[in-house]
């Protein structure tokens, strides 16, 4: 029963994390296009609150609950390959999260040099990781 509760809260955290992973780079798109100082300041506040208030706590809860479930079901880690591949993909998501933090700091310091086109492409990257992570978790291949 404990594992089911952990899984439920893990999924809630994943959904919150991905909502932020999809939205923050979209804010970067609009921020990079913004011309007026008041608009830029508004984007800085929105980006900071999203990153610190939703995105990072959701990522921490997602990873913590994932490892807790893995600890309770450690046979997965020693006997199946899909979980190892999933963990590599989650690591890539954590690196993407860190890249978002890097861009957030650049925008906050008015040092962003990337175009809105760059951020439009950057915004699509989490989807490329979401699909295989979900497929691995649901199908449990290998």
Can you describe what's shown?
- The protein is mainly α and 142 residues long.
- It has a domain at 22-55 and 76-139.
- 87% of the residues lie in helices and 0% in strands.
- It has 6 helices and no strands.
- The protein has helices spanning 2-33, 37-72, 75-79, 81-108, 116-122, 125-139.
- Helix 4 (81-108) runs antiparallel to helix 6 (125-139).
- The longest helix is centred in the middle third of the chain and has 36 residues, at 37-72.
- It is elongated and about 55 Å long.
- The two termini are 26 Å apart.
- The relative contact order is 0.16.
- The mean pLDDT is 96.
The average pLDDT is 96
- Secondary structure class reads mainly alpha
Uncertain parts: none
* Separation, N- and C-terminal Cα atoms: 26 Å
User: What coarse outline follows from CA principal-axis ratios?
Assistant: elongated
Largest sheet: none
Query: Strand tally, please?
Result: 0
What is the radius of gyration? 17 Å
Tally of helical runs? 6
What is the helix/strand order? HHHHHH
List the helices and strands and how they pair.
Layout: H1 2-33, H2 37-72, H3 75-79, H4 81-108, H5 116-122, H6 125-139
Helix pairs in contact: 1-2, 1-4, 1-5, 2-4, 4-6
């Amino acid at each position: 029963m404990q594992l089911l509760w952990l899984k439920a809260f893990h999924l809630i955290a994943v959904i919150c994390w991905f909502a932020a992973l999809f939205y923050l780079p979209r804010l970067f798109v609009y921020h990079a296009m913004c011309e007026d100082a008041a608009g830029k300041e508004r984007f800085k506040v929105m980006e900071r609150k999203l990153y610190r208030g939703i995105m990072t706590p959701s990522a921490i809860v997602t990873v913590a609950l994932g490892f807790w479930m893995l600890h309770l079901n450690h046979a997965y880690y020693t006997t199946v390959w899909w979980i190892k591949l999933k963990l590599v993909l989650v690591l890539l998501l954590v690196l993407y999260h860190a890249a978002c933090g890097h861009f957030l700091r650049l925008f906050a310091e008015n040092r962003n040099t990337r175009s809105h086109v760059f951020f439009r492409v950057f915004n699509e990257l989490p989807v490329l990781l979401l699909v295989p992570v979900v497929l691995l978790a649901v199908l449990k291949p290998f």
